[in-house]
Amino acid sequence: MNKGIFITIEGLDGAGKSLQANLLAKKLLEIGFPVTLTREPGGTQVAEKIREVILNQRISSKVEALLFLAARISHLEEVIKPAFEKRRIVISSRYIDSSIAYQGFGLGLGGEEILSLNERYTSAFWPQLTLYIKIGLEVSMKRRGKDRIERRPDSYYTRVEEGYNWLIRKFPERIKVIDGERPIEEVHLSIFRVALDYINRMI
C-alpha cells in the first residue's frame, strides 16, 4: 500500500461495533494485512482516563463534547496517524461521527457545530471508509449497557439516530450501511466484503 487506510465502525449502542471491529481486524490479519485495532474514547493513556470521566461522572453537554474531542486528539496523534503513516490499516470503533450523532444531535449542540469543531482540531483527518451497523431503537434499548450515556432516555437515542441518518445523507461515498440485526457472522461477512473491496481498490 502507498499509504495507510483508516476505517471506522459506527452505530448506536448495542450495535456490536467492538465485536465487529475485532472480527474484521482478525480476518484482515489472517490474510496478511497489517492492522491496528483501536477504539474511542480510549486508545491512549490520556484518552482512557478521559473515558472514565465521560462514562462515570456527571458533566455538562459542552464539557462532554470537549472531553471527547480531547480524547480524540490524543488518540489521533498517538495511535491513528502513526499507524497510518506506517501504511497500516487502522480500524477504530467510533470516531468523529459518534460525536456528531451523540453530542451534536443527541445533546442538541448542533451537528454542523460539532463537525466544524472536530475538523478544526483533527485537521479534517477523516476515515476513508465508515461502516455503519444499523439497528433499530428497540434493539439498541435491549442490548445497550448501563453507563452514564447508555442510561439516557429513548428520546435521546431517537435524536442520535437522526444524527447518523444526517451523516449518511451528507457523506454517502464514505459511509456504508450494514444491516446489524442479522446473526453476528452474517454481519461480519458483509462488513468484511465491503472493507476488502475498498482495500483492494486502494492498493
Question: Would you kindly provide a brief summary of this structure?
Answer:
ATP binds at residues 11-18. The protein has 203 residues and is an alpha/beta fold. 57% of the residues lie in helices and 14% in strands.
Tell me about this structure.
The protein has 203 residues and is of the alpha/beta class. Helices cover 57% and strands 14% of the residues. The chain is built from eight helices and five strands; from the N terminus they run βαβααβααβααβα. The chain has a five-stranded parallel sheet, with helices on both faces. The chain is globular. One of its GO terms (cellular component) is cytosol.
Profile the largest sheet: 5 strands, parallel
SS-derived structural category: alpha/beta
What is the average of the pLDDT values? 97
Low-pLDDT windows of residues = none
Helix content: 55-70%
Quote the distance from N terminus to C terminus.
5 Å
Strands of the biggest beta sheet: in what spatial order? 2-3-1-4-5
Order of helices and strands: EHEHHEHHEHHEH
Please give the radius of gyration in angstroms: 16 Å
Percent range for β-strand residues: 5-15%
**DSSP summary: helix tally:** 8
Multimeric status of the protein? single chain
Q: Count the beta strands.
A: 5
The rough form would be described as globular
